């Protein structure tokens, strides 16, 4: 009963506040300046709190849900992963004038050889209904006087545990660009003193970009696999905005014939 009474009181107070500021808005051209200044200060204080509430509410109610690991996986998948940058908000969500080997979060590192960096990188919130990833990654590239730009993503231990030459590793992403460029994905697998590299060009003209790395064509020593990582290499990125709306990985055994 007490809770119901509190709800009624809160509803009445909300209506009173709305009516109050509606009246203040109507009389703003006529009230004394001293009164108007006081009301303006009150309005700014109220707006600050309302903006904070709206931002927090949008974070919780906007699609997709923060932390989501949902995405389409091939039949027989024995390992899958969406990196943290595409799942949860990072403590530092952006960098400007990005230096070589700068890190965004614990998993993503930026490599380039520009003498003067005019490169920005930022985590952004996905709000489109069709997006499954809560967050995306945006690169803003202005003048670019280097010869290469890449993002390196360390794959977790689960990717290499039990990894065999009979496995297929699939990578999916959603790419948006101001102007089309070539993007390559290079899978690196360290096994003992050697590193196997497999390169695939991303079909960026497709809305849902997918490439597969078939380890049957590799020479990895299955007993000595230690680590794996992905290089995303951007060719001719100057004066472009590139957004990776999602990035996911899955692993499955290839069909036995």
Q: What spatial form do the alpha-carbon principal axes imply?
A: elongated
- Share of residues in strands: 35-45%
Proportion of residues in helical segments: 10-25%
- Overall mean confidence score, pLDDT: 89
What is the tally of beta strands? 13
Question: Stretches where pLDDT falls below 50 for ≥5 residues?
Answer: none
- H and E string: HHEEEEEEEHEEEEEE
Largest sheet: 7 strands, antiparallel
Helix-strand category = alpha+beta
The Rg value, from CA coordinates, equals 25 Å
Give the CA-CA distance, first to last residue.
70 Å
Put simply, the count of helices is 3
Kindly describe this structure:
- The strands form two sheets. Strands 1, 2, 5, 6, 8, 11 and 13 form a seven-stranded antiparallel sheet that branches.
- It is elongated and about 80 Å long.
- The protein contains three helices and 13 strands.
- Strand 3 (102-104) and strand 4 form a beta hairpin.
- With 257 residues, it is α+β, with helices and mostly antiparallel strands.
């Amino acid at each position: 009963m007490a809770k119901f009474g509190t709800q009624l009181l809160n509803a009445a107070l909300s209506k009173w506040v709305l009516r109050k500021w509606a009246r203040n808005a109507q009389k703003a051209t006529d009230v004394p300046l001293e009164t108007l200044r006081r009301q303006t200060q009150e309005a700014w204080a109220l707006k600050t709190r309302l903006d904070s509430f709206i931002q927090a509410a949008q974070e919780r109610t906007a699609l997709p849900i923060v932390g989501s690991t949902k995405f389409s996986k091939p039949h027989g998948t024995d390992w899958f992963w969406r990196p943290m940058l595409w799942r949860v908000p990072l403590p530092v969500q952006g960098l400007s004038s990005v230096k070589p080997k700068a890190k965004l979060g614990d998993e993503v590192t930026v490599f380039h050889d520009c003498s003067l960096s005019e490169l920005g990188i930022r985590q952004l919130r996905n709000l489109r209904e069709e997006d499954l990833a809560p967050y995306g990654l945006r690169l803003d590239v202005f003048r670019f006087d280097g010869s290469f730009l890449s993002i390196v993503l360390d794959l977790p231990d689960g990717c290499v545990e039990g990894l065999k030459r009979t496995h297929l590793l699939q990578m999916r992403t959603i790419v948006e660009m101001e102007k089309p460029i070539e993007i390559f994905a290079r899978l690196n697998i360290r096994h003992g003193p050697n590193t196997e590299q497999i390169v695939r060009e991303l079909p960026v003209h497709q809305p849902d970009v997918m490439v597969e790395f078939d380890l049957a064509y590799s020479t990895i020593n299955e007993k000595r696999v230690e680590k794996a990582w992905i290089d995303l290499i951007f060719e001719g990125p100057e004066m472009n905005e590139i957004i990776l709306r999602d990035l996911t990985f899955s692993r499955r055994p290839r069909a036995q014939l």
